[in-house]
Amino acid sequence: MTGFSKPSAIERPALALLELRSIARGVRVCDETLKRADIQLLDARSLCPGKYMVLFAGPVGPVEESFKAGVEIGADMMVDELFLPNADLQLVPAMEACAVPPAVDALAVFETFTVASTILAGDAAVKAARTHLIEMRLANGLGGKSFFTMTGEIADVEAGIEAGKKAIEHLGALVAVEIIPRPHADLIRKVT
Predict the structure, then answer these.
(1) 131 and 172 in one domain?
(2) CA dist., res. 153 & res. 86, Å (int)
(3) Domain annotation covers residue 145
(4) Can you give the pLDDT at residue 105?
(5) What counts of helices (H) and strands (E) characterise the chain?
(6) How confident is the model at residue 189 (pLDDT cuts 50, 70, 90)?
(7) What CATH number has the domain bearing residue 70?
(8) pLDDT of residue 4
(9) pLDDT > 60? residue 26
């Protein structure tokens, strides 16, 4: 993934995800979305089993314009899509595995069947409670599944998890959630 320059606290970026069942079409969609508007490519790659993902961010207007073009060009090859205006500022650093959490009181792992549902649940979780995303793994060596880890005080982590579940319950994409109060120091070193 490439670096992402943080917008001001007032201007939250929009995120868009396009997931296609064709690698060839996915590469074309990636090119066309980049040419359509001034957006920043966060990730573009093949996923298991034989799909392609395009993830980009930027101001709401340009991201929406590129997203609509990508959906149109992807057409019958689209598997999943997500347009998230005003995404929480914690999402991109967590996707880039460069988020530095505060001291870990409780650790949560939120696992889903899809990339889009992980992003949606993670956004809802950090907006609902005083939690910090640690990492967001998007189908990288996971057979198409994705997950995020987050921390905070136990009550906040529980509230964030509930918000994440609620945000994706209509998708039927939840695999599992685990909340670990006071995780062992060795585990913390592995997940941060």
Answers:
(1) yes
(2) 25
(3) yes
(4) 87
(5) 6, 8
(6) confident
(7) 3.30.70.1710
(8) 38
(9) yes
Distance CA 29, CA 52 (A): 10
The Cα–Cα gap between 58 and 118 comes to: 19
The full DSSP string for 150-166 is EEE-HHHHHHHHHHHHH
Kindly state whether residue 108 falls inside one of the protein's structural domains. Answer: yes
Instruction: Return the number of other C-beta atoms located less than 10 Å from residue 103's C-beta.
Output: 6
User: What's the mean per-residue pLDDT of the chain?
Assistant: 90
Q: Would 6 be classed as within a structural domain? A: no
Q: Are residues 106 and 164 in the same domain?
A: yes
Place of tokens 């060839």: 24
Question: Which domain range does residue 173 map to?
Answer: 91-191
Residue 5 corresponds to which tokens in the numbers above?
A: 């320059």
Q: Is residue 95 domain-shared with residue 179, that is, in the same domain?
A: yes
Enumerate residues 6+ apart whose C-beta is below 8 A from 140.
none
Helix-helix angle 60-74:23-36, to 10 degrees: 150
User: Rounded to the nearest 10 degrees, what angle do helices 115-128 and 154-168 cross at?
Assistant: 140
Contact in structure between 28 and 70 (CB atoms under 8 Å): no
Q: Residue 36 domain-assigned?
A: yes
Residue 97 half-sphere exposure toward CB, CA atoms < 13 A: 9
Q: Are residues 75 and 95 in the same domain?
A: no
Query: What is the spatial order of strands in the sheet that 174-181 belongs to?
Result: 132-138, 146-152, 106-112, 174-181
Q: Are residues 65 and 148 in the same domain?
A: no
User: How long a stretch of residues is the chain?
Assistant: 192
